[in-house]
Amino acid sequence: MNKDRATFAKRQREVEKKRKIDQKKTALVYCENQFGSVDGKTAAALVRHSEIYTVVGVIDSSLAGKDAGEELGEEKRGIPIFANLDDALSKLSEIPNCYIYGKAPLETYISAEERFLILEAMEKGMDIINGLHQFFSEDSEFVKMAAQNNIQIKDIRKPPQLKDLHGFTGQISKVNVPVIAVLGTDCACGKMTTAVELNKTLNNHGIKSVLVATGQTSLMQGARYGVSTDALISQFMIGEIENSVIQAFDNESPDIILVEGQSAVSHPAFISSLGILKGSMPDGIILQHPPARKFRCDFPHLAMPTVESEIKLIEAISQARVMAITLSHENLADEDILKVIAEYEKQFQLPTTDVLSHGCQKLVQTLFNHFPKLNPNFERENLNFFLDGQLELATR
Predict the structure, then answer these.
(1) What is the DSSP letter of 388?
(2) How far, in Å, CA of 396 to CA of 387, rounded?
(3) Residue 13: helix, strand or coil by DSSP?
(4) Phi and psi for 221 in degrees, rounded to 5?
(5) Quick check: is 4 in a domain?
(6) What percent of the chain has pLDDT over 70?
(7) Who has the most CB within 10 Å: 76, 163, 176, 313?
(8) Which of 121, 155, 189 represents a domain boundary (last residue)?
(9) 210 with 318, same domain?
(10) Which pLDDT belongs to residue 254?
């Protein structure tokens, strides 16, 4: 009987997954000269996962003809990389629904060449999805072109109107399920990827998890709750994060809430992590770290902090404790990852893993250890599927 139930549950998940795929919009992601790099993290994330878009191609002339998944050092995904927009449209079977600006540079404004490509995409009838601080919906030329071609412009980072913003209320105290923040030691080091993978794993195996987004990319991926924190007036950052967690709790009745991190508490250039710690008041923290990175992303004169110093800083300003360490495997071979995992687990006495290479088993078990009430929700047949999947992953 349990085997029949497990088979039925698996089939139901497959049917639901197919239904969601059929409802997605197709998208072409622009990431010229940056795919696979730090500034191309939005494109990489959308290639890995999106509940809203089916990515049918990436634009990056330096990698034209290659597969996007393989260029990320992962499995082949059947997502081609094109030299330019004309190349993409000539080879795709139909014009995609959307054109996504998939880079996340420090620069505020797009180049003249990128501007031309966006106008061209509009002329082809593609909606424009923009994650920059430069809001295309406030650009008169873009607005005019959008109206002429009956297409939409969506600025992901555009904050709510002032009347709709929230200050901190303290109502976060009513949230009685575990809230876990996935923080990091730097920008673009895999915090969002770890949060997304853990969220998918929990939901796929019977634990209702809701991800609260704090950046533009995870909102593009389909997170239902959250806000792009770095586009907010600082007075409202903490309140908006609190409100997002409360909304997720009230509307979804979840077993657990995961909160995506931004930058790092120790980073001198950004304050989002402080807002996330204060607004979400997490019950536990997962810390993401790129061991091979020597200097902070985009700041070559700033040395990376150590895992030890980041943990001390986080735990000095938060009642929550770091419960696990997750790794970015950038510039590391497989054997290097295993070595770092062993070293960190010995040094910090904390479970350590790389979710892209080794899955989320350690993280799920850590959550069970810290929050035993989660365990009964993890049905026996789902546990068998989970362990079988992890065994298969470990033996690849």
Answers:
(1) H
(2) 15
(3) helix
(4) -75, -15
(5) no
(6) 89
(7) 313
(8) 155
(9) yes
(10) 97
Tokens of 115: 């501007």
Distances in Å between the Cα of 223 and the Cα atoms of 52, 236, 247, 392 are 9, 20, 13, 28
- What pLDDT does 19 receive? 47
Q: What is the pLDDT of residues 118-133, one digit of tens each?
A: 999 999 999 999 999 9
Residue 269: pLDDT over 70:
yes
Asked whether residue 170 is domain-assigned, the answer is yes
Amino acid at 242: E
Assigned domain for 17 exists: no
Per-residue CA distances from 319 to 41, 278, 283, 316, 356 (Å)? 31, 10, 8, 8, 29
CB 383 within 8 A of CB 8: no
* Residue 86, domain extent: 22-155
Give the integer Cα–Cα distance in Å for 375 and 96. 43
Tell me the average pLDDT of the chain: 91
* Residue 282 confidence (pLDDT) above 70: yes
* 346, pLDDT greater than 90: yes
Write the secondary structure of 71-120 as one string of H (helix), E (strand) and C (coil): HCCCCCCCCEEECCHHHHHHHCCCCCCEEEECCCCCCCCCCHHHHHHHHH
pLDDT of residue 104: 84
* 240, 70 contact by CB (below 8 A): no
My answer on whether 125 and 232 are in the same domain is no
User: Domain containing 364 — which CATH number?
Assistant: 3.40.50.300
Question: How far is Cα 276 from Cα 259, in angstroms, rounded to an integer?
Answer: 8
Same domain, 136 and 247: no
Residues 116 and 227 reside in one and the same domain: no
What are the Cα distances from residue 212, in Å, to 14, 145, 187, 209? Answer: 24, 34, 18, 10
388 and 258, same domain (yes or no): yes
Asked whether the predicted pLDDT for residue 99 surpasses 70, the reply is yes
pLDDT at 172 exceeding the cut of 90? yes
